[in-house]
Amino acid sequence: MIIGIFCGSSAGNNAAYMAAAREVGQVLAQANIPIVYGGGRVGLMGAVADAALAHGGDVTGVMPRSLVEREIAHPGLTRLDVVQNMHERKARMAELATAFIALPGGAGTLEEIFEQWTWAQLGLHHKPCGFYNVEGYYNPLLEMTANMVKEGFLHQRYADMLPFSHCLSDLLQCFKQYRPPVSKWSQPEGVNHGR
Ligand code: AMP
Fold it and tell me: pTM score, two decimals?
């Protein structure tokens, strides 16, 4: 398993977020699970990388050239892939990682994990995604996915793909047991809201 991590380029207002980021870095390093992430040394991103590297982990950063200065590329990574743009970053991370975890973060974090989740729904890849739900940060999103199902915009099987947990070992266990769902347009059921 190679875990792609998406998380805030900010630290957040609750010390529990940075603590969780450090825990993720440390636990993955100690389990010999390589990490792929955005490559920055700021916010939760930097905390994951620092902790993993401090515990001998293998950490690959993937960063668009335009962000190398702004998000301040982490200087001590195992490797840093500098790519041309955000699209290349996400494609490269999707290629390198075998599963994805979103820690607390902002719009960038959501955009990145949602892209991987939607690609998995379409069968473009078969890699699991999950949310590390530190202090219930993602509870409103869990409610939103339930609402998408209720209102007929998301099939239950695609909601079920996404574990939300405040326990990292639970998430890793879910990833090990992951069975990709039937992809979105693979059955000729005609137009079907919330497929
Ligand atoms: P944020 O959660 O907004 O702090 O952003 C976290 C990560 O998402 C950072 O690595 C950002 O470079 C990245 N990011 C920000 N905006 C976007 C976007 N529109 N598409 C993809 N990634 C983004």
Answer: 0.92
Cα of 108 vs centre of ligand 1, distance in Å, is: 3
Q: Is the dihedral of CA 29, 27, 48, 38 positive or negative?
A: positive
8 lines ligand 1 (CB under 6 A): yes
C-alpha 38 to ligand 1 mean position (Å): 9
Ligand 1 lined by 133 (C-beta under 6 Å): no
H or E element in which residue 189 lies: none
Nearest CA to ligand 1 atom 2: 106
The tens digit of pLDDT for each residue in 20-64 reads: 999 999 999 999 999 999 999 999 999 999 999 999 999 999 999
CATH topology for 3-33+50-148+160-177 is: Rossmann fold (3.40.50)
CA distance 53 to 36: 12
